[in-house]
From TrEMBL:
It is found in: Cytoplasm. Heptamer of 7 subunits arranged in a ring. Interacts with the chaperonin GroEL. InterPro entries: Chaperonin_GroES, Chaperonin_GroES_sf, Chaprnonin_Cpn10_CS, GroES-like_sf. Together with the chaperonin GroEL, plays an essential role in assisting protein folding. The GroEL-GroES system forms a nano-cage that allows encapsulation of the non-native substrate proteins and provides a physical environment optimized to promote and accelerate protein folding. GroES binds to the apical surface of the GroEL ring, thereby capping the opening of the GroEL channel. Keywords: Chaperone, Cytoplasm. It holds the Pfam family Cpn10. This is Co-chaperonin GroES. One of its GO terms (molecular function) is unfolded protein binding. Transmembrane segments: none annotated. It comes from Sulfobacillus acidophilus (strain ATCC 700253 / DSM 10332 / NAL). One of its GO terms (cellular component) is cytoplasm. Belongs to the GroES chaperonin family.
């Protein structure tokens, strides 16, 4: 299934954080924070969109609407919820 966001919205695939610390300690799912970075999969047709498909972005913690596509977690975000581009 393909999803194309409308207006100033962006479809972002969530990027999982590391499951272990640098010292090798395992972090259980209950202790993990919600991911705040993701990979831009699709962008809407709005005029003020400054991100492109394939870029990694940092977004607000409780932003967007969660959807599941092909058994993977995605978010539909407003461009205003994107805080930075991660390079």
């Amino acid at each position: 299934m393909q999803v194309r966001p409308l207006g100033d919205r962006v479809l972002v695939k969530l990027v999982e954080e590391q499951e272990r610390t640098q010292s090798g300690i395992y972090i259980p799912d209950t202790a993990k924070d919600k991911p705040q970075t993701g990979l831009v999969v699709a962008v809407g047709d709005g005029e003020d969109i400054k991100v492109k498909e394939g870029q990694r972005v940092l977004f607000a913690k409780f932003a967007g609407t969660e959807i599941k596509l092909d058994n993977e977690e995605h978010l539909i975000l407003s461009v205003d919820d994107i805080l930075a581009i991660v390079e």
